[in-house]
Design brief:
This protein has 404 residues and is α+β, with helices and mostly antiparallel strands. 47% of the residues lie in helices and 13% in strands. A seven-stranded mixed β-sheet has the order 1-2-3-4-10-7-5, with helices on both faces. Strands 6-14-11 form a three-stranded antiparallel β-sheet.
Amino acid sequence: MAIQLDSALGSDCPTSAIDPFSDDFLTDPYGYHEELREAGPVVWLDTYGIYAMARHAEVHAALTDWQTFCSGRGVGIEDFAKVKAWRPPSKLLEVDPPLHTRTRSVMSRILSPAAMRKLREDFQKRADALIDALLEKGRIDAVKDLAEVFPLHVFPEAVGLRAEGRENLLPFANMVFNSFGPRNALFENSVRNARPVVQWIYDQCHRHMLMPGGFGAQVWDAYDAGDIDEDEAHTLVRSMLTAGLDTTVNGLANTVYAFACHPDQWQTLRAEPSLARPAFDEVLRWEAPVQTFFRTTTRAVEVAGVTIPESAKVLLFLGAANRDRRRFENPEVFDIRRRPIGHVAFGTGIHTCVGQLVARLEADVILNAMISRVSAIEFTGEPTRKPNNTLRCLGTLPVELKAA
Ligand code: OVV
């Protein structure tokens, strides 16, 4: 694809015709990532009239500088200052300090290391039982049978949702993650698909719908304590239901996929189970579940010689930054012995994933369960992709788990 300097922009900003929300790009982004990284530290994307960054240094710096690259005008392609948000904005993701500082502190207290310690034993038992059952089956679809089943088992319960209606969670999240992109067919179809479940999701966020003791009830405890108002409490529970499931589903699917692609790495992990945590980080670096988020500039800012004007939308390619050879040696190689410190799959700065301990716990118990029980993970067919404007999603992942 032709990359030219566009003098009309008034600075030396390379221009690209790449469409990062096309099926082509979303199905296999890595060649396009390389093109964008090599085009320059900042690239103007003609298709949408937005700036983009795909190199690690600039993505990292933008995520860190929340004063300049704000979230309060939306982290999708639409600027909330110009276009009304399509849903009531998140009070965690789509806000800046000081409100963000307050809501974030409520959420990080609830999703703390101590809270994870209380959940671990139960999560591990369920992971063990699931992997035992899957070994009985042998041939599975690791998306439907593992990556979706496990988070749908443990996460809604940890939040304190009722048993009925949990199947509504994934279509809802799928829609929200599509909505950060343009109003393309992916977005329109996911909206159509999720329309019947939206009211159900909003209903579950009320205090009387949530079981005592769960994450959701604890958000309402923060309301009782006067830390947040009623609307904030409701919207923070919505954040949990939106951000907590599809992300971990794809994180787990990508984990199984990474090891199915690299049988030697599975043997390395089995020989050295203490690598489970760095191995999951390497999965996140290599195949980031959340590929992109936007920021909006609050002022004109110079980035590596390029001036980005005020009120510009800037697309940050987390997944591309994680494969930047300026930061990671042989970045396309999946190597669980690498310590992928600095990957930005969870973001960085004040908006770093607040639920990452839950994600890490889920991955850890699944890997533990598999390390002792599964001697090999073999493809039994071609995996398929399910394009999403934000997430790196597998549609199906046919594998056979071999019992150890
Ligand atoms: C990280 C994330 C993704 C999607 C939605 C939200 C957060 C939210 O806060 O609603």
